[in-house]
C-alpha cells in the first residue's frame, strides 16, 4: 500500500480525529509527549516526494524545536518535548518547512503563547 503524501499530514483544524490517531501512533510511550525520535516516526508514515531524507530530518528538527514549549508555560524536561497540545503546531510548521515556506503557524494561535488553554481543543486546553 502506498504511503500518503506529506501534504496530507493533518495539521488543519478540521482534521482533529486524524491528528489524534497520528499522535497516538507516534507517542510510543503513551505519555502525551513526543521526543525527537518519536516525531521522526513520521518518516515511515508519509511519502516525501523524493526529498532527500537529510532535508526531511532537518525540517522535522526545525519544526520540533519551534513547537516544543510553544505555549511557554513548561519548565524542566517537559519543555524539551512536543506535548499533545503542541502537536498541531508542530505538524503545521513541519509541512510549511517542507514546502519551503517559513511562515509562522496560523496567527490565531499567537494568543496561546504564554497562556494556558488554547483555541482548538480536544480535552479542555490541548491545541492539537
Short description, anyone?
The chain has 128 residues and is mainly α. It is 36% helix and 3% strand.
Q: What are the main properties of this structure?
A:
globular; 128 residues; 3% strand; single chain; mainly alpha
The count of DSSP E runs of length 2 or more, i.e. the number of strands, is 2
| Major beta sheet, strand line-up | 1-2
Average pLDDT, rounded to a whole number, is: 84
Low-confidence stretches: 113-121
Largest β sheet strand count, sense and barrel closure = 2 strands, antiparallel
Cα-based radius of gyration, to the nearest Å: 14 Å
What share of residues is helical?
Answer: 25-40%
Which series of helices and strands comes N to C?
HEHHHEH
Work out the helix count.
5
Architecture overview:
The chain has helices at residues 16-26, 36-39, 42-45, 53-67, 87-98, and strands spanning 33-34, 82-83. It is mainly alpha-helical. The protein has a two-stranded antiparallel ribbon. Helix 4 (53-67) packs antiparallel against helix 5. Residues 113-121 have low confidence and may be disordered.
Topology, element by element:
Layout lengths: L15 H11 L6 E2 L1 H4 L2 H4 L7 H15 L14 E2 L3 H12 L30
Antiparallel strand pairs: 1-2
